[in-house]
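Appendix B. One record, verbatim.
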Amino acid sequence: MTDPKILVVDDERLIRWSIRERLREENLEVLEASSLAEAMSQVQQGVDLVLLDNRLPDGQGLAAIPAIRKAAPDACIIMLTATNSVEVAVEAMKAGAWHYLTKPVNLDELTVKIHQALETLDLRREVQTLRDVMSAPWGPETIIGTSAAIQGVRQMLLKIARTPGSTVLLTGESGTGKDLAAKVIHYNSQRASKPFMNITCSALQETLLESELFGHEKGAFTDARAQKKGLLELAAGGTVFLDEIGEMSLALQSKVLRFLEEKTFKRVGGAQDVALDVRVIAATNRNLQADVEAGRFREDLFYRLRVLPVELPPLRDRPGDVEALVDFFLKRFAKEFKKPLFGVQPAAMRVLAQQSWPGNVRELRNAVERAALLAESQELTLEDFVLVPPRAAHGHGQPMVLPEEGIDMDALQDELVRQALARTAGNQTRAAQLLGLSRDQVRYRLERMGTAAQS
């Protein structure tokens, strides 16, 4: 928690002063109020903890607890009262107070209770954050774009979500959003209330990956001091997402195939079969058909996985979606960085749409994040982005063929310079980057073009 605000509500000035001075020694920010009216005004502006006296000039603190809780649901309340009464303490706790202390207040005890309350508040907020993440809407609209290709993907994911639990194979280049597609399937299915577990198959050695997937029995290997459930068991009733399954060894592939066919498995070092209902979604950026032909991937597992195949299109095949993606990411980062960012200049957006984005949506997101961090104006310009020149960005595209009649190289170079300047709205630095030239080279060609035009 950063800079928690503590409100001391007491009509005795000396008590407020003594508590304030002690808490400032703890580097805590202290606010003060001498009445319930002042307290409510402070609470509505945001506080983390309230030290609340019971007897105040304009009412009972005990009676005000529900109003404070309504105005600041997260805040912890510690009641301070001269009445050493069990009944009052019980009523305070029922009303929503976190703790109860009697006057005269022992400042050491109060300091300890305040730190405990702030730790409790931290845990509450962490739990709520996790709940928000887990319950976040993973509807089809989270896959951004209006292109026909991406609309087809959304429709297919929803159809798959309505199926009971057939295996799914997500294919596509790195950065196309296969992990997001897996979550859309899970959170729009009847399994949404059950766990979604994911593992990257290339991140662990074969023995560790097997243990992570299937679990192990005590004594199965040197460090196996107790039985451990694997991701499959932990995801019971839910979904397991096997990312980069093309990197899995042939030996482990056979065990995954057995589970998919029989819905049972053995823990590492175990003798008993464990039956389990779980959906498996696999993903890869490899050409598994080619790997099958080369003997690197089991053919039977390949066909068992691709009961429901979905290919995520690369971003270069749907340039019309770039603007919607940029707007989406910009709003997210503006909120995250607390910066007033309101859009991207049209000329810059045209250049972004014309990029090939070899890293796909992930690369675009990173480019927008970097631009949002570095931007000095509310509207992003092309200078805020660091882009890869098209010729180095990706190996796709038609090869250039020399015409039979030959070409005028000077005229071709001049035309490319004109196009680069048009694409970058006249920015010579960006035009140079697009052409793979230095800025001085672009200036030289412009001067030469100008001289030729005058002669």
